[in-house]
Amino acid sequence: MKDNPEHLEEAFEEVCKTLMDVFVKKHKDYGKDNILEMGELGVAFRETEKVSRLKHLLRENREPQYESMEENWIDVAVYAVIAIMLRRGWFEKLELDKELES
């Protein structure tokens, strides 16, 4: 991770790399069934839960005891990307690159 990106697009790219890492790790643990069972609507519900938690913590002005605020924002972003992949028909058809699976 680049500690001090010099430009906004570099910062954006760093965050996207983090999203990819989290997606791959969690996908290895969960597989596709948890997403495919409810599809895009299920993703929307998961997003709603994460956003509700974030709003509660922000209103209370406190840090969570489990999963940091950043981890919650990452989850929201990853779910958004999964929803886009579902819309495009990619999530159900594609698999992880074999090199990423090890």
Question: How does this model look, in words?
Answer:
With 102 residues, this protein is mainly α. It has one domain (8-101). 71% of the residues lie in helices and 0% in strands. Helix 1 (8-30) crosses helix 4 and helix 3 runs antiparallel to helix 4. The two termini are 21 Å apart.
Outline, from the CA principal axes? globular
Number of strands: 0
User: What is the CA-based Rg, rounded?
Assistant: 15 Å
What is the tally of helical segments?
5
As for the number of domains, it is 1
N- and C-termini, Cα separation? 21 Å
- What fraction of residues sit in β-strands? under 5%
Topology:
Layout: H1 8-30, H2 33-36, H3 39-60, H4 69-87, H5 98-101
Protein name: Nucleotide modification associated domain-containing protein
Looking at this protein, list some descriptive labels.
mainly alpha, 102 residues, 5 helices, globular
Brief synopsis:
By secondary structure, this protein is mainly alpha-helical. Helices cover 71% and strands 0% of the residues. The chain has one domain (8-101).
